[in-house]
Q: What sequence folds into this?
């Protein structure tokens, strides 16, 4: 149990560190900074990256963990949550030649686990960016919809689509397995596992489509979040 908690915490530390690095990048663009100030920011970036490396090293020692869970939901505007995460990474993505286009429909307030859901959006955005080392585009959408599985539940459909390299067909069945990664030492294999677990905690559904065909490559992750979470799901969370 202790190793599971340690691995989960090590993974969760990395995305807030990414957020700090993005904020430092934004501060660097301020024209009023002195040369000394920019130097201090560079040092801060290096220290944050060092902490991230420590967290990755911890993950290498623990290979059996569960995703973190939450106990209560609160009403939140899901499109605003998405937009806040996109804004956080927009400067970094722009520097890498990645354009992000977002489209949101009205009535996006749902009872959700806000912090884990932000983590889901962060993981999907960062995975999309990793699939486009030479630049590309990410399209996000959040619109009211009904569930596609035949349950006829009302809720919100959230989509992340990228023009990246795509996921090989032989890897698709395993992408949600804990610690399965195609990124080598640069990936922990926990990101999509966490995405799956958080969607399940919401009683939602998750689909992925991907293509590696030249000129048509890319991936689409679609999440359905129901407008009401059944008590069974709350107890399971």
A:
């Amino acid at each position: 149990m202790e190793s599971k908690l340690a691995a989960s915490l090590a993974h969760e530390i990395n995305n807030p560190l990414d957020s700090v690095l993005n904020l430092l990048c934004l501060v660097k663009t301020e024209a009023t900074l002195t040369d000394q100030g920019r130097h201090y920011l560079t040092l801060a970036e290096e220290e944050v990256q060092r902490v991230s490396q420590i967290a990755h090293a911890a993950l290498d020692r623990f290979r059996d963990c569960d995703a973190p869970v939450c106990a209560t939901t609160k009403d939140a505007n899901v499109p605003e949550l998405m937009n806040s995460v996109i804004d956080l990474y927009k400067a970094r993505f722009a520097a890498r030649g990645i354009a992000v286009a977002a489209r949101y429909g009205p009535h996006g307030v749902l009872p959700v686990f806000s912090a884990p859901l932000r983590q889901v959006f962060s993981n999907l955005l960062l995975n999309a960016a990793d699939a486009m080392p030479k630049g590309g585009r990410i399209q996000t959408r959040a619109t009211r919809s009904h569930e596609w599985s035949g349950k006829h539940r009302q809720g919100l459909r959230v989509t992340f689509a990228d023009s990246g390299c795509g996921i090989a067909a032989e890897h698709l069945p395993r992408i949600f397995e804990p610690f399965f990664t195609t990124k080598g030492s640069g990936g922990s294999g926990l990101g999509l596992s966490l995405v799956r677990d958080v969607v399940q905690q919401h009683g939602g559904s998750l689909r992925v489509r991907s293509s590696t065909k030249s000129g048509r490559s890319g991936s689409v992750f679609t999440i359905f979040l129901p407008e009401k979470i059944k008590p069974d799901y709350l107890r399971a969370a």
Summary: The domain at 74-236 is CATH 3.30.565.10 (Heat Shock Protein 90). The chain has six helices and seven strands. The beta strands are 74-77, 98-104, 109-112, 136-146, 154-162, 205-211, 218-226. The chain has two domains: 2-61, 74-236.
